[in-house]
Amino acid sequence: MAESTSPTNTNSNTKPNLDGVDIPIRGDSQPEDNRPVFFFDIDNCLYPRSYKIHEMMKELIQQYFVNHLELTKEHAAYLRRYYYTQYGLALSGLVLHHSINVLTYNSLVDDALPLTKILQPSPSLIHLLSDLRSSNTTSKLWLFTNAYITHAKRVVKLLGIEDFFDGVTYCDYVQGEKDGRLMCKPQREMFEKAMHDTGLVVGRDEGRCFFVDDSIANCVAARRLGWAGVAHLAEPEAEPLVEEGDNGEKESEERNIEAEEVAAAKQTEIEKEKERLGIKTITDLSELRVVFPELFRNCGVPGEEKDRVGHEPLREESPGRQLPKRQETPLPMGT
């Protein structure tokens, strides 16, 4: 996969990517494609929370706080959770309030996750994406993540689904370090950036945006912006967006009370907003067939157990239905 850059050539029908290969784009003379764009979150969405990758990442982030900010383990745990609650990403707090090297952080956290030992292709996930593609009801399938590009690429490659997506909008750690603040979900400008990356027009095309994410805050932000179809993926017994204290953390009573009060207040507020906005709740990606049936035409009976996006080992005798092999072109990346 290659990251796309702003066009520098004079050919209006192509745009260059970082590998120097021209990617065809729609010419002005062609009719506009008014079909929806479906945005997929990546982490804890394209794979389940039961894999505990989120917990592994929390430990790596906390260790970074201890080593690079010279904090005690207790203070690091509190500050990590506080930044996550306030900004949506612990890294956002680090960039705002500390002097750090974001690529060093990325190498010690996101890129240090042992994903090759955990992730593998899921036939049911491939089946779902194949059906969505073959229905021809969307103009693009797009990845939309708060992770850095290296992590996004690694996850979809290990899941065997990179060819299903037309591009990705990711959190640009490097640009965030230069700006002194990260642009990430649930910030409004991040959603507007995702629309721009896919060729949608802010203020006109929100009705063409469909979105699934495991974060209530991100789902609420999308609906506030006017995105038409938003599904909150809430796996049974999955932890909420706003974290509670980890077992075994021995924080001071004052810090613990403060963190829990902030978490509880924010969780209550955002759950009320989710209900008010009418955001759909699903417990498995397969339920997208039920909540957005108009996008899955002629794809069999929705909600069948065999179609649940489970996490079964990939078997040769059950590879899942796939589209005919598409022409291999680098996956454009929002920048």
From TrEMBL:
Composition bias, kind Low complexity: at what positions?
A: 1-17
Q: Which Pfam families match?
A: Hydrolase (PF00702)
Bias class Basic and acidic residues marks the residues at 247-258, 303-319
Locate the coiled-coil region(s) and give their ranges. none
An annotated Gene Ontology molecular function: nucleotidase activity
* Region Disordered, residue ranges: 1-30, 238-259, 299-335
Swiss-Prot/TrEMBL GO biological process terms: nucleotide catabolic process; pyrimidine nucleobase metabolic process
Q: Which InterPro entries match?
A: HAD-like_sf (IPR036412), HAD_sf (IPR023214), Pyr-5-nucltdase (IPR010237), SSM1_domain (IPR052791)
UniProt-recorded name of the protein: Pyrimidine 5-nucleotidase
Query: What species was this sequence derived from?
Result: Terfezia boudieri ATCC MYA-4762
